[in-house]
């Protein structure tokens, strides 16, 4: 687009780009000249973002290979913590089936049959089991 953000007065096509960036709530991140010659310094390599909170750092890297310098943007990155997962497990190492069957046979299950609310019945059954 060759819009020089450093030129004063602002050229019409640069003003249009600035208007469009404001309409779409974009912010131009680079503030240093990106093309430097013996006669001029211009800011024509641009980078826009809609959320500066996501950007950790931005700038210009000066190199000797070209009169166009390299622009860079470092995005802020946050790892979300995983929610703790709880699992209930049973150790069956010392499980005795005969004792378990005996305990189940001594529970009065008929009390649960008289309950109309299935959620309450399930809770009582689960507690007794």
Pick out the low-confidence regions.
none
What is the arithmetic mean of pLDDT?
A: 89
**N-to-C order of helices and strands:** HEEEEEEHHH
Whole-number count of domains: 2
Instruction: Give helix % range.
Output: 25-40%
Structural class: alpha+beta
Strand order of the largest sheet: 1-4
What distance lies between the first and last C-alpha atoms, to the nearest angstrom? Answer: 74 Å
Biggest sheet character: 2 strands, antiparallel
Count of beta strands: 6
Shape: rod-shaped
Using only CA atoms, what is the Rg? 35 Å
| Helical stretch tally | 4
- Beta-strand share of residues: 15-25%
Report what the structure shows.
The protein starts with 11 loop residues before the first helix and ends with a helix. A hairpin with a 4-residue loop joins strand 2 (35-36) and strand 3 (41-42). The chain contains four helices and six strands. It has helices at residues 12-23, 97-105, 110-113, 118-128, and strands spanning 27-28, 35-36, 41-42, 48-49, 55-61, 70-75. Helix content is 28%, strand content 16%. The model has no long low-confidence stretch (mean pLDDT 89). With 129 residues, the chain is α+β, with helices and mostly antiparallel strands. It has two domains: 12-75, no CATH class; 97-128, no CATH class. The strands form three sheets. Strands 1-4 form a two-stranded antiparallel ribbon. A two-stranded antiparallel ribbon has the order 2-3. The chain has a two-stranded antiparallel sheet with strand order 5-6. The radius of gyration is 35 Å and the shape is rod-shaped.
């Amino acid at each position: 687009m060759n819009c020089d953000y450093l030129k004063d007065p602002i050229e019409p096509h640069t003003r249009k780009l600035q208007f469009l960036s404001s309409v779409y709530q974009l912010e131009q991140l680079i503030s240093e000249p990106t093309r430097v010659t013996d006669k001029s310094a211009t800011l024509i390599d641009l980078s826009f973002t809609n959320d500066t909170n996501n950007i950790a750092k931005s700038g210009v890297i000066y190199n000797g290979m070209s009169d166009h310098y390299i622009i860079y943007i470092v995005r802020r990155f946050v790892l979300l913590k995983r929610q703790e997962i709880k699992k209930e497990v049973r150790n069956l190492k010392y499980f005795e089936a005969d004792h378990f069957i005996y305990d189940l046979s001594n529970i009065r299950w008929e009390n649960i049959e008289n309950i109309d609310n299935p959620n309450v019945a399930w809770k009582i059954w689960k507690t007794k089991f």
